[in-house]
Amino acid sequence: MKKTINIGIFTILFCIGSLQGDARLEKIVIAGPFASVSHPILHMIKRDALKDVAKKVEFRLWKNPDELRAIVIKGDVDFVAIPTNTAAILNNKGVDIKLLNVSVWGILGMISRDKDIKTLKEFKGKKIAVPFRADMPDIVFKQLLKKQGLDPKKDFELVYVASPIDAMQMLIMRRIDHSLLAEPAISVALRKTKSFPISIVAPELYRSVDLQDEWARVFHTSKDIPQAGMAVLEGMKDKKVISRFMQEYDKSLSWYMSNPKEAGVLVAGEIEMLSEDGVSDSISHINMKSVAAIDAKQKIEFFFDILKEEDPKSIGGKLPQDSFYYKAP
Predict the structure, then answer these.
(1) Would you give the distance in Å from CA 311 to the centre of its chain?
(2) Cα–Cα nearest to 187, from 262, 133, 264, 246
(3) Measured between alpha carbons, how far is 260 from 186 in angstroms, rounded to an integer?
(4) Is the pLDDT score of 191 beyond 60?
(5) SS3 of 190, please?
(6) What whole-number distance in Å separates Cα of residue 305 and Cα of residue 308?
(7) Going by DSSP bridges, is the β-strand pair 79-83/28-32 parallel, antiparallel, or unpaired?
(8) 58-99, pLDDT tens digit by residue?
(9) Are 300 and 321 in contact (CB under 8 A)?
(10) Mind listing the domains of the chain with CATH numbers?
(11) What is the 8-class DSSP label of residue 320?
């Protein structure tokens, strides 16, 4: 009799559980580039941080801005790591995208074979590789040049390339001596050219002008440039999931900044084009902190106003509406 009762209780509990079901989402898809903004996401996935709200979390790499825009417009991802101005452009075009935070405040710099170049003006007349034409690195670079009375078209020979990897290859193969890059590409390039036999082909490269320092000096403001962050797309409506995502992203970002060696191992293991040492080195040269988009609105709009003054298309023609900034419940 006792055995029968136990089986009966188990059956009832099993049936109740079946009726309630698993409330978790089947899958969350997050898209991002190989740059620093995505690295906390990899840590989130590694430690299964969102297991309470999703059965599976998938990371989808985008390699260039065209791929990013195609992914967003297709709408089969939930969250995306994205340059702030690209998010504004998409929002102004009617895409239902909301900026969750700004986590990247400084990753842009120049890399050069000339160790004596200390300012952007000193690059005048030089041939410079620039990735992502008309997107974030190029936009900030041009604004800094123009503010100092320089003409990007006449005073420099800008060679536009499809990605930072292409710029790195040109530096390594001595096809070019100067490039604008974002971390961790700068640190990876410096590491690669110190390794044999590449060092014979591509002797010393140097970390040159920090664009954030230039920005602060030229525009009389702080070094914080709201360059990139996380955004949520139309398909993700669950506010609890969004809240949990941001909580865990912030935790993983803190871990990333505090554990450069372990972060290098993790990221290089997931993104083959990056090296452990390069990623580890980059962390001491970046400005990353998670600030809720609504709290960063003033700095974002200051940045967007500067971009709009020179080229309205760089933010989609106008400042995005208040609805662009995600407001937590």
Answers:
(1) 22
(2) 264
(3) 16
(4) yes
(5) helix
(6) 5
(7) parallel
(8) 999 999 889 999 999 898 999 999 999 999 999 999 999 999
(9) no
(10) 23-106+227-324 (3.40.190.10), 108-219 (3.40.190.10)
(11) P
The letter for the amino acid at 53 is: V
Task: Calculate the CA dihedral of residues 144, 148, 153, 154 and round it to 10 degrees.
Answer: -160
The residue among 84, 43, 65, 77 whose CA lies nearest residue 229 is 84
Q: What is the dihedral of CA 280, 210, 61, 67, to 10 degrees?
A: -170
Tokens matching residue 210 = 């920090």
d(CA 185, CA 172): 12
Place of tokens 């929002």: 91
Mean pLDDT of 313-322: 95
Q: Categorise residue 94: left if φ over 0, alpha if ψ from -120 to 50, beta otherwise.
A: left
Residue 100 is classified by DSSP as -
pLDDT tens digits for range 202-231: 568 899 999 999 999 999 999 999 999 999
CB of 30 closer than 8 Å to CB of 59:
yes
Length, in residues, of the chain:
329
**Burial (0-12, 13-18, 19+ Cβ within 10 Å), 16:** exposed
